Amino acid sequence: MEVRVQNIRKDFGRFPALNDVSLDIRSGELIALLGPSGSGKTTLLRLIAGLETPTEGTIYFGNEDASMKTVQQRNIGFVFQHYALFRHMTVLDNISFGLKVRPSTRRPARAEIRRRAMELLDLVQLSGLEKRYPAQLSGGQRQRVALARAMAVEPNVLLLDEPFGALDAQVRKDLRKWLREIHDRTGHTTVFVTHDQDEALELADRVVVMSQGAIEQIGTPDDIYDTPNSPFVFGFIGQSNCMKVHVTDGAIWFEDRPLGLNAPGEPEGPANLYFRPHDIELLDGCGGCIAGLLTASRRVAGTRHIEIDIGGGHPRIEIELPPEKVGELDRSRIAFRPTRWKLFRPPV
Amino acid sequence: MALDTQPGQHKLTSAVTESRFARWTLIAVSLVFLALILLLPMAAVFVEAFRKGAGAFVEALQDDETFAAIKLTLIVAVISVPLNLVFGVAAAWAIAKFEFKGKAFLTTLIDLPFSVSPVIAGLVFVLLFGSNSLLGPWLAEHNIKILFAVPGLVLATMFVTFPFVARELIPLMQDQGTADEEAALSLGASGFQTFWYVTLPNIKWGLLYGVLLCNARAMGEFGAVSVVSGHIRGETNTMPLQIEILYNDYNFSGAFAVATLLALLALVTLILKTLLEMRFSEEIAASRRH
User: Fold this and answer.
1) What is the pLDDT of residues B81-112, one digit of tens each?
2) Which of A77, A84, A101 has its CB closest to that of B179?
3) Are strands A64-65 and A241-248 parallel, antiparallel or unpaired?
4) Of B176, B178, B185, B186, which to mutate for an interface test with A (greatest number of A Cβ within 10 Å)?
């Protein structure tokens, strides 16, 4: 189901957790709320669920105003960060809970409830474990039970709060792929919260980057990574360098050196130049480039990270190169130019 | 690095291990203390009760007044313990799961009976319901007896035993948080279903533990009950009061016979408490942390 969040504000005491946030979630979409802790992403998820009530603003489920509906009436599926499985119930009882507590008019027959729970257990690949208790399961298994339990009520929208936050790196990766498969198969509208950018970029159809109670950028993983629209997104998603430069006559300068980059139409004055460590080309001569002394070089997986001191007391700049290219360098002075970059005005 | 904590086996010992002398001294001191303060008096109760033989013991328990006292104690416990269970759960629920103004005050208030002398607790009810009080004439007019009757005894007992259930549950429920409840609500469960199927099972062992302690205190309470009872023989004497009366009558075997019943209650409570702690230590551990 389509979910629309309109001009939502949420205050906790005098502290605003969310400030005028609007977001359209399309039906069947898998969307990630990404941000550092305190950015308001979990609050937004809980507002959609009905676990919190907004101070201002409206939430629509389809064309219906759901703002005043209780969490029970919204018919959502919520997966909690620490699973919140009912520890005194078996896996099967946990999954069937949502159907069992329905009023008798809407409750399926006992055999039907069991059949559906077993089907879900099969979907989350835990067949044969229905009689276990949560304490007898691994973290990954518990998370899958939690997901099956949330899906059992056939929710309008599936909401996941840091679904893989408490798991080891390897299990996380496996579950990520598996969640994507489940989503593609069942087609539930799904919103998940994460502070892990890899998770968001790999898993989601669209990513919502949040910071300090506001949405910074909404876009596909490609949009977000390739064309960040703010210094925050540049810094938060992936690696990036920030150089203090100034613009004169449409050209970009670092101190008294031109960088060979043109910014026509850009107003004169100081600016911050952002670029990613791998979006660069090495240069032989330097008739307009960033140049400096190699101060450190580290091998990280398939690439080599090189730190460069560009002088003027500026923080070190980091670039990434394929390892074989570094061998060819054979000198301590390096010249390069960003191939993809963006200028932001420093905050006044 | 693995430190071997078993002495003798290895030179490395854990940093908190004391010398053998210190350890044995500590153990001996506690054992002697236990023997003097707890075991000896306990043994004395049984010895005194059976001094004149098992026949006298049984006879003492068959005395009409004593029998009435046992009955009254049970009645008071049967009324006050369930009421305190309900109030305790409600108070713990409110404090642990909701934010509201005056929460700290309420928490302190729950501890009040622990810090007030039981005699004062009894006096409070005398001041409230006695013939010279504000309510006294009105109560007399409507022929409602509170003091020197079962209602007064129940009220005094409830006052004294109120904290047991609530105190046991508050840390436990705070520790468990509200995620389970939120999960149940998000799955469509009503408030009552959430309480019945999720909250209650999560706290049942802690609750039982609290009820056990509450019951032991309810049956053994002396001070508060003594003030409101009026000591009417065969009518308003609970077991602890009956013991005192028998003792003052120089009926030692009778006094100690009733005392054995209370001692047995204490033993049973201890055993059940230990069993609960062994079996469900994790679930009630939270409340042991304060």
Assistant:
1) 999 999 999 999 899 888 888 888 988 999 89
2) A84
3) unpaired
4) B186
As a whole number of angstroms, the distance between CA B260 and CA A251 comes to 99
Per CB-CB distance under 8 Å, the chain B contacts of A95 are none
Contact between B188 and A102 using a beta-carbon 8 Å cutoff: yes
Rounded to an integer, what distance in angstroms lies between the CA atom of residue A54 and that of residue A44? 9
Please name the residue of chain B whose CA is at the shortest distance from the CA of residue A107.
Answer: B188
Tell me the mean pLDDT in the region A86-104.
92
| Residue B287 pLDDT > 50 | no
Q: Is the pTM of this model over 0.90?
A: no
- Among A75, A79, A86, the strongest candidate for a mutation testing the B interface, having the largest count of B CBs within 10 A, is A86
Residue of A nearest to B187 (CA): A98
DSSP assignment of A291-319 equals: EEEEEEEEEETTEEEEEEE-STTPPPEEE
Contact between B184 and A51 using a beta-carbon 8 Å cutoff: no
Torsion of CA A216, A220, A223, A225, to 10 degrees: 80
**The two three-digit tokens of residue A185, written as one number:** 């198969």
β-bridge mates for residue A296, sequence order: A307
**Which pLDDT does position B283 carry in this prediction?**
58
Give residue A27's pLDDT: 92
Q: Does A133 touch chain B (CB under 8 A)?
A: no
A294 touches chain B (CB under 8 A): no
CB contact under 8 Å between A84 and B188, yes or no, is no
Closest Cα to residue A286, out of A341, A246, A340, A334? A334
B183/A98 CB distance under 8 A: no
Asked whether the beta carbons of residue B187 and residue A87 sit closer than 8 angstroms, the reply is no
B53-288 maps to which CATH number? Answer: 1.10.3720.10
* ipTM for the predicted complex: 0.82
Q: What is the pLDDT of residue B270?
A: 87
Q: What is the rounded average pLDDT of the residues B27-48?
A: 90
Query: Could you report the per-residue pLDDT of A113-172, keeping only the tens digit for each?
Result: 999 999 999 988 888 898 999 988 988 899 889 999 999 988 989 999 988 887 888 888
The residues of chain B that CATH labels 1.10.3720.10 are 53-288
- Which residues of chain A make contact with B184, given a CB cutoff of 8 A? 86, 97, 101
Give the E-state strand segments of B35-87 in sequence order. Answer: none
Interval B189-198: pLDDT, tens: 998 999 999 9
